Fold this sequence. Notes:
By secondary structure, chain A is α/β, with parallel strands linked by helices. In chain A, 34% of the residues lie in helices and 27% in strands. Chain B is mainly α. Helix content of chain B is 68%, strand content 5%. Chain B has helices spanning 2-14, 17-47, 59-69, 91-100, 123-148, 153-162, 179-193, 195-204, 212-219, 225-253, 261-284, 290-308, 315-322, 324-329, 331-344, 349-373; strands at residues 50-55, 83-85, 105-110, 113-117. The longest helix of chain B is centred in the N-terminal third of the chain and has 31 residues, at 17-47.
Amino acid sequence: MAETVVKIENLVKRYKETLALDHFNMEIKEGEVFGLLGPNGSGKTTTMNCILSLLTYDKGTVEVFGKKMTPDNLEAKKNIGVVMQNVAVYDELTVYENIDYFCGLYIRDKELRKKYVGEALDFVELNEFKKFYPKKLSGGLLRRLNIACGIAHKPKLIFFDEPTVAVDPQSRNKILEGILELNKNGATIIYTSHYMEEVEQICTRIAIMDKGKNIALGTKDELKKMIKNTETISIESINVSEEDKKNLGALEHVYEVNSDGEKLIIKCNGGKHNLIRVLNYINEKNIPCGRVYSELPTLNDVFLEITGKELRDKEA
Amino acid sequence: MFFHNFKYSIKATLHNKPHMLWSVAFIIALGTLFYVSFGEIYSQELVNAIKVAVIIDDTETAEVFHDMVANISIDEEGGEKLLDISDVSHMDEAKIMLEDGDIDGIFYSQDRELKLMVHENGINQSILASIVAKYHQVMTVIADLSEKAPDKIPAVLSELLLGESHNVEKKTTTGDMDVYIAYFYNLIALACLMAVNSGLVITMKNQANLSIVGARKWVAGAGSFLQTLAELLAGIVVQCLCTLVGFLYLVLLGVDFGNQIGYIALIIIVGCVTGVSLGFFVGNIGKGSAALKENIGVAVILTSGFLSGLMVGDMRMMVEETCPVINKINPSALIADSFYALNIYDSHDRYYKNMITLFIISVMLIIAGTLFGRRKRYASI
């Protein structure tokens, strides 16, 4: 059975009057890619900083590698890597020097460090930029440098705090692939994000956070099973009467029918042929319609159903 | 690990262009300003004699006047004197020279009285006016004596005209009493104290609540005493280099620091050590923001400098009279006093005492800063 790498029990953290973590519990096993998913301000980064013992907390316990995490727990710190949300590098040092400097905080042996720095450069594909200063790098390359500085010393536990914010899709995919590779090589990953697609893509287990609470925990399939919705059918450019809505709602497995004038949204719970049944009805009634989508539930649906609000603000 | 930190701290500091520019430019800019200002005073005091014309027709006036200015005029052998009397004998010619600016004034006689003609006002013209005043003073004394004691006229006249003084200057030291060099000493002292900024930068790069790099280092478990010492040493080395470059510039500019350059260099090194340590200490106290700590750093520099007399000359004496303990622990006062001791005393006892005190203060500040900053946890970052 895999060992517990991080264990949080009953963690309470307040920022003056604001309750940032409200009796938060979490346990992460070795080899997991554990996702902390939640909207901005839900307490993801606070959780991470409490685990790292950067922040004081009001109540609860945090254990890392089986021992209480304190600022002096250097043995644990040696095996932890952190990729901060903001790029944490020296502007005055080159790419190579930055990785070497931060790796040097963990690895004293010069030859070993050289090897590790070379591997980190290869990993983030920054070899051709190794003599560049950070100011000369694009946003995506900077993020990769940030990652290299956090993982060069080959830690057993790596925290990624929203590493893909403001990154282009190509770089984002590279970062996500890299994280999976690190996990394949034996590292336990804690990944915080408010991008549900990313969390779904890479995480083996997910904790959904809201207002400092762990509102749902499990694999993505387990989370999706927690909610009523199993399929959402959307039909564009359709005008249906109230009677049609009523009839559609009466179809097997359909539990909710909504229309905003431009789109008809039908939510189903269970069943295998919901889309066919809905399309047959529209065909029978000869109702003109545009494009039709059938979507499986997302983590946003999970969040929406549990909290009654969207996981992420609608992006412009 | 020590060398690893030292190497990269040196690199990072050297590439921190605004910090480097400020550290070097401060002393160069102010030093140049001082040199230009004081250079003008020096040149007027020591080099240029005041050019005048003497057109005195009246024989008696001419005789007394020439006797009076004989001691302060350039003779045939040259030498530094106050007056350079032009070889002009006609008033019209002298007036043309005055208008052209070739001479600063014309001494002439009118109704058996000495008069002065000038074209503009200035320091030179004021000096010439004082000579005329002295002449009238001499003539008044002669007039008085001719009525009361005519037999004493030759003796009194001789004394007045030769300008002999009964005050005897007794030097207690062979040191340089040049007041202007003290300004350059104070400038270097202030430059040393500017190293507070360097100490603050080091702290900010190590504290999780002050910089993101600090957070990464904190997470890495960085912050051991040796690592801190390596970064402080790097800061001190760079700061010393900057200040020494500034000092070298002043030497090349022509500021005469005498033959005690080695001692001055030691003050710069110890001063920079104290400056960096002070910044490190300030940066590590409490959990305030970077801006707050920067403001405290500036306040510390200015207060320390103010109390030591870097801005108001007599302040150090006033502090010495009211609360002497401040002068004994104020880094700026100790640096300034070291320069003073070097400038004035033949013995180096006071100089070494100040150096040792500064060093002890630095060590205490580093230890206290390390203890305050070590493995802090934050309520928020």
